[in-house]
Each structure stands twice: as C-alpha cells, then as structure tokens.
C-alpha cells in the first residue's frame, strides 16, 4: 500500500495516502477540458506560477525524521527492495544549485477528489516552492485513462523539466509516459509505474507508502475487533494496480497465517471508489453471519459503512487503509471502522520532489522508495492525523476524540 540502506541520510514536511480518502479535494479542481487548476484554498504563496522566494529555504530537505523506523514490507513494481524515504536528502549545496536552475514541473493525478491526493499535492507544492521550481500544470484524470493521456499531451506542450504522476492504467498510458521520457522529462511515479518503462532509463523512481505493511496493520486491527474468530469478507480493487493488490494480499495472508479461527468467506471487487456500498450490501446479504469486512481504501469503506447501517448491521467491524476525514470521524467515535493502516501522502510528495531534484543533479536514485506504515485506531487518532497531515485534526474530529 512496503528496509535497507541507500547511500545517504535524512527527512521532510506534511500530510499523507494509491489511493484514497474521503474528503472533498482541496488540492485541485477539474475544468471543462479535463485538466485541473489550483483550488481556491491552496496557500497563496505556494500556488502555480508563484513559487516561494529562493531565500525562504536554505536546506537540507528531507522527510519527517521522527517517523518510526519500521521494516518496509512492500516490494517495488518490478520486485525491487524498498529504500526508506527517510534516507533521501537534498543538501544545502544541492538545493542552492537546483534553485539556480529555474526549473519547471507538472503533476498528473489519477484522481484528485480525496484527502490523500490533496495531501500529496501539498507536499509536492511546498517542496517544489522551496526549490524555486515552478509548477506549470496540475491535472486530474478522474480515474479515466484516456483523460490522463490527453492531460499529459497538454502538459508536454509546456515542456516541463519534471513530471510527477500516478498512472490511471499502467498499460494504456504507457505510450504517453514513454513520449515524456523521450522528450527528456524527468519522470517520478507515485505508487505505480507505466508498463514497460525502466528505472534509471525512462523514469527516476517510484514512491509509495508501505502498502503491504498497511495491509498487515489492517488485518491485525480487524482480527482484534472480532475476537480473532468468525467470518469476514474482503472488498478488493479489481484494477491492475499493484499497490492495492499488495494491500489485499498482505491482509489476506496475515489473516490466513496468523488467525486460524478467522474465515474469509467471500470477496467482492470494486472498479472505482464509489462501488463500496453496493459490493458491501451484496456481501452482507449473502453472508448474514459475517462479523467483519476489510475494504481496500477509505472511500469505498465509507460506502461499506453506509451499507452496514442500511442493513441494521452496526455490529459489523471494518478495517481499511488511508486516513480520510469521514473514516477518522467514525474511528474517533468508536464506530464500525475500528482502525486502519495509513499512508503518509504529504511525506510521499516531499520524497517525490527530492527524487526529481536528484535527477536534475545527475544524482543516483533508488528505483523504489517507500514511507513506513502507520496503524491508526481510536486511541491514537489525533496523534496519527498530525503525523499523516502535519497539521492538527479538524475540530470535528478533535471534539469527538476528546
């Protein structure tokens, strides 16, 4: 959803999450062409076309060094061992060199309508601003591969030095990413790479959360919630998306190997974030004795929550991945969502920007980088929110949690 030392050290900034969360996007909004523009509530000194003063940050730049030093369990898209994002660093001298370059960057999102995307975008914006790198375009494909291809064609006309992106579909978008690489654009991928592209040749690196580790955390949470016995279901992502596959694989393997009295009785697939309610409803109708449900990320988990309420199943325990506002509210009040494994999207955004700078400097970059997993539950919800988003939880969550 994800150990080893690289030839460097160090740290980053704020807000985290392949996917998912639940709030309205506060990072980008669609326009009529399918591209995106900055939302009104983006920080005024960090928006596109208005980078921070080059004297604002002198370096070094790292991700949050206070993050727990957990073993990264995820593998990269080509089976690579992960390098912890805590090992990345842009030194003071390197930062000064980047600032002098007057470079430009673009960001192509698969979907921008959630807290995960907003946090990752904020990490990218803030870090690029500190590097004096101007963001010339930010786009939202709304989970449509053809829209993303068109978005990137438009981006390439702007001739950015850097493109940070998460492919909607690894295969159908591959040709446009290959085109970007051939134009000399420094490609950094979020979570998943385009099919057929090679690290160090076509792209710089892939950055993700420890999605496997977060799947493990979700399994332990759900097992504890149902007393380590009984029937459960799994709602998985049907798309060929390696980070969501890792989450589900990790969850199921952990249950099967560590909780022999728990039986996964059924699985239901979703193709998009809005399918959770209907899939959960079908599973609950078919298996009335089901005690728990794992949902692959938080937005469809909200749908599962709605389905359980409609079915009068408020005794159902749910675990998921990604810390969005709505699931956080349910966790804080002791609701059906008992906890989750959280990504750290803000820190992922910082790491992606650092790796783009590595490429501009000709500095060696690891092929796969991951940030540690984080277990979130009712007891640590406020602390976890601050770790994920580098900001205090909204008042609505604080009021319930306290």
Explain this structure.
Helices cover 36% and strands 19% of the residues. Strand 11, helix 8 and strand 12 form a beta-alpha-beta unit. The two termini are 30 Å apart. Helix 2 packs parallel to helix 10 and helix 7 packs across helix 8. The chain is globular. It is built from twelve helices and 15 strands. It is α/β, with parallel strands linked by helices and 402 residues long. The strands form two sheets. Strands 1-2-5-4-6-7-8-14-3 form a nine-stranded mixed β-sheet, with helices on both faces. It has a six-stranded mixed β-sheet with strand order 10-9-11-12-13-15, with helices on both faces. The N terminus is likely disordered.
Q: What is the number of E strands? A: 15
Reading the helices and strands in chain order gives: EEEHEHEHEHEEHEHEHEHEHEHEEHH
Distance between the termini: 30 Å
- Low-pLDDT segments: 1-55
Question: Rg to the nearest angstrom?
Answer: 20 Å
Treating each run of at least 4 consecutive H or I residues as one helix, how many helices? 12
What value does the average pLDDT take?
87
**Largest sheet features:** 9 strands, mixed
**Approximate helicity band:** 25-40%
Given helix and strand content, the structural type is alpha/beta
Biggest sheet strand order reads: 1-2-5-4-6-7-8-14-3
**Beta-strand content estimate:** 15-25%
């Amino acid at each position: 959803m994800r150990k080893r030392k690289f030839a460097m050290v160090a740290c980053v900034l704020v807000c985290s999450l392949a996917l998912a969360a639940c709030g309205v996007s506060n990072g980008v909004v669609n326009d009529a062409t399918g591209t995106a523009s900055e939302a009104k509530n983006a920080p005024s000194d960090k928006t596109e076309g208005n980078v921070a003063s080059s004297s604002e940050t002198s370096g070094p730049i790292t991700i949050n060094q206070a993050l727990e030093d957990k073993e990264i369990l995820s593998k990269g898209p080509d089976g690579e061992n992960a390098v912890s994002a805590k090992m990345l660093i842009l030194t003071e001298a390197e930062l000064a060199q980047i600032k002098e370059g007057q470079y430009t960057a673009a960001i192509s999102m698969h979907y921008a309508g959630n807290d995960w995307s907003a946090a990752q975008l904020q990490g990218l914006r803030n870090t690029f601003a500190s590097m004096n790198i101007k963001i010339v375009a930010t786009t939202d494909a709304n989970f449509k591969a053809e829209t993303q291809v068109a978005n990137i064609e438009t981006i390439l006309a702007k001739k950015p030095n850097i493109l940070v992106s998460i492919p909607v579909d690894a295969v159908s978008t591959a040709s446009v990413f290959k085109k970007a690489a051939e134009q000399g654009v420094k490609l950094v991928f979020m979570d998943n790479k385009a099919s057929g592209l090679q690290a160090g040749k076509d792209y710089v690196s892939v950055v993700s959360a420890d999605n496997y580790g977060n799947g493990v955390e979700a399994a332990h949470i759900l097992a504890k919630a149902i007393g380590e016995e009984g029937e459960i279901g799994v709602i998985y992502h049907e798309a060929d998306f390696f980070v969501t596959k890792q989450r589900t694989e990790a969850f199921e393997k952990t249950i099967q190997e560590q909780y022999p009295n728990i039986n996964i009785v059924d699985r239901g697939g979703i193709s998009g974030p809005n399918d959770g309610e209907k899939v959960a409803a079908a599973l609950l109708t078919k298996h009335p004795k089901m005690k728990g449900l794992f949902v692959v990320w938080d937005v469809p988990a909200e749908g599962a929550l709605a389905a359980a309420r409609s079915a009068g199943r408020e005794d159902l325990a749910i675990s998921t991945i990604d810390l969005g506002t709505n699931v956080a509210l349910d966790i804080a009040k002791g609701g059906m969502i008992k906890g989750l494994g959280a990504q750290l999207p803000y820190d992922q955004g910082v790491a992606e920007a650092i790796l783009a700078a590595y490429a501009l400097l000709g500095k060696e970059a690891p092929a796969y980088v991951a940030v540690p997993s984080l277990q979130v539950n009712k007891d640590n919800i406020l602390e976890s929110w601050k770790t994920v988003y580098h900001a205090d939880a909204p008042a609505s969550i604080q009021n319930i949690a306290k």
